[in-house]
Amino acid sequence: MKDQYSGDINDYRKYGLLRVIIRASGFRILVAWMLTPDDGSTDGKFISYLEHPGKWSRHDPILFQKIKELLASGRKRRVSLIEGSGLIPKAEYFSSLVPDTASGRSSWFSSLTQRAQGSDCVFLDPDNGLEVKSKAYGGKDSSKFLYWCEVEALWASGKSLLIYQHFIREKRLNFIQRMLEALRNATPGSFVEAFSTPRVVFLMALQPKHQEFHRAIVSSVQENWKGQIHHWELTRAQQGAPADRSPAARARVG
Q1: Each residue of 153-198: pLDDT tens digit?
Q2: CA 12 to chain CA mean position, Å
Q3: Which of 99, 94, 145, 134 is nearest to 116 (CA)?
Q4: In the predicted model, is pLDDT for residue 241 greater than 70?
């Protein structure tokens, strides 16, 4: 995440999803922004949606109006504006910049896990998403990615997870199914599902103790964000069981 993105159309959907999840589950969420420095690009300028309340505000009128007010205030766009707005109830925040070096990253993650102790769910918001082969842990630009070892550690600590992931140049159905399979393998005993927007997919792994909230979360997303956030589901994971590759295990949109 970069401060320059704060309040754009992707953020509106993202905050809306978080608000729906919290309302449906009562989760105490830690928002780990995974901040990296602004880069001076035009990314994040997509705020023209705020000029069309008839189309956009219906999904979450309170959120829409507050973002519009924050961006109209003339203050520099920063995630701290969202932190101070109260728009994400029951949320705490971890806002430290993500370092590239391995030693710095290890220290950063240690601080993150300590901050997450009182939370039910951790939302991880990397620039790009989960690790790729070309970006080794501790290497240049590794700060833009979340690493599977971090996913596994947070899961083992008892946290449900929501992960921001950009789409890549791969058929979306195949990509979502592949990422859900990988997430299921990294989170034994989980129920995994995904929520997609035009540019992003959010991968969710629910701890066994949280799986009772699955239906309420899905229903709330479909009710409030129809046409903007789509639900994808995979079969329930069984601890230690091999990946189910039957037709029933294929991702399906809801």
Answers
A1: 999 999 999 999 999 888 888 899 999 999 999 999 999 999 999 8
A2: 13
A3: 94
A4: no
Residue 190 near residue 228, CB atoms below 8 Å: no
Yes or no: say if 180 and 194 are a contact pair by the CB < 8 Å rule.
yes
Report the pLDDT value the prediction gives residue 90, as an integer from 0 to 100: 84
Rounded to whole angstroms, how far apart are CA atoms 153 and 174? 26
- Residues near 159 by beta carbon (within 8 Å), at least 6 away in sequence: 116, 119, 120, 121, 122, 207
Cβ atoms within 10 Å, residue 187: 24
Angle at 82 between CA 79 and CA 87, to 5 degrees: 155
C-alpha to C-alpha distances, 54 to 62, 64, 232, nearest whole angstrom: 14, 11, 27
For residue 80 the two structure tokens come to 């701290």
Q: How is residue 203 annotated by DSSP?
A: E
Residue that has been written with the tokens 């946290």 in this structure: 159
- Residue-wise over 38-68: b if at least 16 C-beta within 10 A, else e? eeeeeebebbebbeeeeebbebbeebbebbb
Residue 253: count of CB within 10 angstroms of its CB: 12
Does residue 76 register a pLDDT over 50? yes
DSSP state of 241: P
Predicted structure pTM score? 0.87
Closest CA to 180 of 195, 197, 169, 168: 195
Cβ-contact 90, 97 below 8 angstroms: no
Mean pLDDT score, 34-57: 76
The secondary structure of 78-141, three-state, reads CHHHHHCCCCCCCEEEECCCCCCCHHHHHHHHHHHHHHHHHCCEEEECCCCEECCCCCCCCCCC
